Amino acid sequence: MTRIIFAVLLLSLSIAACEPGSTETNSNANSPANTNANGQASPAPAASPSPVASPSATPQLKAGDKVKVTTNGVISDATVVSVDEKTGQVTVRLQGETKEKTVAIRDIVKQ
């Protein structure tokens, strides 16, 4: 008998949890969301435009520019070999090394 009561209780709780309606009793539930003290509807705040990186925010790089590159948390001097703006990648030659390395534009600071 206890199992049946427990099963019915568990079933009713799971059904209640899946109901789309809210059972909260909020004193502000019946009032409109955008009203001011006089009961008049206040205008909705204007949506701010999404931030877009301006061309001046990203460094304008070209081959031969001296830059500082952050790799593995270390800042190193380097020279730009090539720039691929489409993918946001820059190929640089680190000072003191002969090997070229490709890094993201965001990891470069122009000197």
Folded structure, characterized:
- A five-stranded antiparallel sheet has the order 4-3-2-1-5, with no helix packed on it.
- Strand 3 (89-94) and strand 4 form a beta hairpin.
- The protein has 111 residues and is α+β, with helices and mostly antiparallel strands.
- The radius of gyration is 30 Å and the shape is elongated.
- The longest helix is centred in the first third of the chain and has 17 residues, at 2-18.
- It has one helix at 2-18, and strands at 66-71, 74-84, 89-94, 100-104, 108-110.
- The model has no long low-confidence stretch (mean pLDDT 76).
Mean pLDDT: 76
Radius of gyration: 30 Å
Strand count: 5
What strand line-up does the widest sheet have? 4-3-2-1-5
What is the SS-derived class?
alpha+beta
Q: Judging from the principal axes of the Cα atoms, what is the shape?
A: elongated
Question: Strand portion, in percent?
Answer: 25-35%
What share of residues is helical? 10-25%
Order of helices and strands: HEEEEE
Task: Count the DSSP helices.
Answer: 1
Q: Main sheet, how many strands, which sense, barrel?
A: 5 strands, antiparallel
List the keywords.
111 residues, alpha+beta, 1 helix, 5 strands
Task: Outline the fold blueprint.
Elements: H1 2-18, E1 66-71, E2 74-84, E3 89-94, E4 100-104, E5 108-110
Antiparallel strand pairs: 1-2, 1-5, 2-3, 3-4
Summarize the structure.
The chain has 111 residues and is an alpha+beta fold. 15% of the residues lie in helices and 28% in strands. The protein has a five-stranded antiparallel beta sheet with strand order 4-3-2-1-5, with no helix packed on it.
